[in-house]
Design a protein that fits this description.
Elements lengths: L4 E9 L4 H16 L8 E8 L10 E7 L2 H8 L2 H10 L3 E10 L6
Antiparallel strand pairs: 1-3, 1-4, 2-3
Helix pairs in contact: 1-3
Organism: Bradyrhizobium frederickii
InterPro entries: Dabb (IPR013097), Dimeric_a/b-barrel (IPR011008)
Pfam families: Dabb
Length: about 110
Amino acid sequence: MSGPIRHIVMWRLRGETPEERSAARLKVKTLFEGLKGRIDGLTHIEVGIDVSAVDYACDVVLFSEFTDQTALSAYANHPEHLRVREALGDLRIGRFQVDYPIKETGA
């Protein structure tokens, strides 16, 4: 597979109280947004915090794009990404991921 690829990850997070959940959500958002400009091949990163408050929703979504599959594979083991994963520790109780090629459209 060649060309740009989109990497989307959603998490459910720990937290006994609404305040703990809110702090966990903000921590994930802050840490991942801190990766902007630090990883070669990472062309876009956006982190959203759920506002729906439905019981089946995930807490946070990461929407990112990479130049190609090689860049996405390198990201998985990049020291900055590993630092974020370590900082999050066991905060995550559920993780869902989708990776797919981005179709380039000619206009």
